[in-house]
């Protein structure tokens, strides 16, 4: 592997045709520069410089290498300049991850405003369980996550947006059948099931579904008592669909408290585009 600094040192010597002047110009000692040149020649496998009484001159291989290295250096400078310009502009493509239920009440709070204010931003959405979204952020597959109860991690920035509570819900107008409807994959559901067992509260049957919108619709239509987050349960989706709204099953029903958080990798989302999205989410007060 050729060191990038060695290539730059070589180009300085090629321009100055003198190791001492080149060392002074780039701010390193002459022995250190000579060592870097020998290391570069060893990596390349060719002698690039020849020393004479009048200075340092390029060999035939050195002339070819210098020409290619200058082109590479120009390309590198252009690339880094474009990257800095990209960071300074509110543009780019970003992926936001969140559970579909979280998306339904959080994204409308800021997405439209973000689109109008920053038309050069391109946002893609990814939906999964919160723990999978966190994993996607840590694996560099997702830029920003709106998640529930994220675990602490040294590489994760966690900014709490609000609180929610998962509990039992029933139809406001229709009598509910003695069926408990819930998502078995959610930690919140399992916690509430254990709480019901301790209180000796039992339902005649259980119905499992991995889609909270289905659970909400079935609950609203009187098919049973649903385990749902409050923010999602009180939305007017069912009423718009011609179904009754929901109400809490009982004042003393068990509640699992949730933390809604924005998460992203520490040091990763420093560009202006990412900062604009983060600012819009925080200002939305979800």
Q: What class would the helix/strand composition place it in?
A: alpha/beta
The tally of strands reads 11
Contiguous helical run count: 11
Q: Please state the second-level CATH architecture of the largest domain.
A: 3-Layer(aba) Sandwich
Distance between the termini: 49 Å
Shape: elongated
Strand residue percentage: 15-25%
Key descriptive features of the protein:
about 290 residues; alpha/beta; Arc Repressor Mutant, subunit A; D-Maltodextrin-Binding Protein, domain 2; 9-stranded mixed sheet; two-stranded antiparallel sheet; 11 helices; elongated
Structure commentary:
- This protein folds into 2 domains: 4-88, Orthogonal Bundle (Arc Repressor Mutant, subunit A); 92-286, D-Maltodextrin-Binding Protein, domain 2.
- Helix 1 (4-16) crosses helix 3 (30-44) and helix 5 packs across helix 11 (272-284).
- It is built from 11 helices and 11 strands.
- Strands 3, 4, 5, 6, 7, 8, 9, 10 and 11 form a 9-stranded mixed beta sheet that branches. Strands 1-2 form a two-stranded antiparallel ribbon.
- With 286 residues, it is α/β, with parallel strands linked by helices.
- The longest helix is centred in the N-terminal third of the chain and has 29 residues, at 60-88.
- The chain has helices spanning 4-16, 19-26, 30-44, 60-88, 100-117, 130-138, 187-198, 212-220, 230-233, 237-240, 272-284; strands spanning 49-52, 55-58, 92-98, 121-127, 144-148, 156-171, 179-182, 205-208, 225-229, 246-248, 256-265.
- Strand 7, helix 7 and strand 8 form a beta-alpha-beta unit.
